[in-house]
Write a structure and sequence with these properties.
Order of helices and strands: HHHHHHEEEHEHEHEHH
Helix content: 25-40%
Shape: elongated
Radius of gyration: 23 Å
Strand content: 5-15%
């Protein structure tokens, strides 16, 4: 799996029913190396950090000298990803800072502390996404308060009214409080040609407070990166699709000059998170931006 958004990642991160249809075989270069001769010293060998003497008992087919030459002409990250089957390369990822060991944490929402907020991305053929989050109670500014994403809803092929009903049922079953406000896509103000009502209008009629502040995509991405850097964004392990989206959201590797991330699936969950954070940090008042 060279990249967290490549073909192998798609197979490995597929639905459980898909994963049950295939076996996953995983090996590294050291697993297929030929036996290293006893006369060859381990001391000073460039493969020592990965081999640790295992090649002395190996029964593979790749000559030791071939791997040594490969090591010398390969960068450390590429070697780790392609030859040692460790973490895939994240150089083309939008959020290379995202680390499951650091940012995925089981948190128990406490209703008496903090604020409940939500983020939503609208869709029909593409999925409708709803994220629930709790902002830790603190005297710090909003952009410095820790944000815990505690649950997710991701569904395609339903009307918006059906999604709202399913979202409310999920919230009730899991003990999630109604968010104080929802950060949503400003495009949700557009009226549906059939119903004559916009998605934001429907949400407000259902009693939700909605924030739909416009902000450049790059600004939202930088705000999420900042939170990842400073450890103020945590995601509950049950938010599996958001976690996968944070790993797979990527730029176009065939057009490195493009600054817009690829819209091939992970963008919907990342957009819902972005709408939430932009509206949290902007607050309900007006913000004046100047260029210098």
């Amino acid at each position: 799996m060279h990249r967290p958004f490549g073909p192998m990642a798609t197979i490995m991160q597929g639905r459980e029913s898909q994963r049950r249809c295939a076996k996953l075989f995983k090996w590294t270069a050291i697993d297929v190396i030929e036996r290293c001769p006893d006369t060859r010293p381990c001391e000073g060998c460039v493969l020592w950090d990965d081999c640790r003497g295992l090649a002395k008992r190996a029964a593979g087919f790749i000559p030791v000298d071939d791997l040594v030459r490969q090591w010398h002409r390969t960068g450390r990250r590429t070697w780790s990803a392609e030859m040692m089957c460790r973490q895939p390369q994240v150089s083309d990822c939008v959020y290379p800072e995202f680390d499951t060991s650091k940012h995925v944490r089981e948190t128990v929402p406490q209703t008496e502390h903090g604020q409940w907020i939500g983020g939503m991305d609208f869709g029909l053929r593409s999925p409708t996404v709803m994220l629930w989050a709790r902002v830790a109670k603190s005297d710090k500014p909003n952009d410095q308060r820790t944000l815990h994403i505690v649950d997710e809803y991701v569904r395609s092929g339903r009307t918006f009214q059906q999604n709202i009903q399913a979202i409310e049922m999920q919230a009730t079953s899991r003990g999630l409080l109604v968010p104080d406000w929802l950060g949503v896509d400003p495009a949700g103000n557009q009226r549906n040609s059939q119903t004559g009502a916009s998605d934001i209008q429907i949400l407000r009629e259902k009693g939700y407070a909605v924030r739909s502040r416009s902000s450049p995509l790059r600004n939202g991405i930088e705000r999420i990166r900042s939170r990842l850097d400073h450890g103020t964004l945590l995601i509950h392990p049950r938010c599996t699709e958001l976690i996968e989206a944070m790993q797979a959201y990527h730029f176009d590797i065939s057009h490195p000059q493009r600054q817009e991330p690829v819209k091939d699936g992970p963008d919907h969950l990342c957009d819902a998170l972005r709408y939430m954070i932009i509206n949290l940090e902007a607050g309900s008042g007006k913000v004046t931006a100047r260029k210098y």
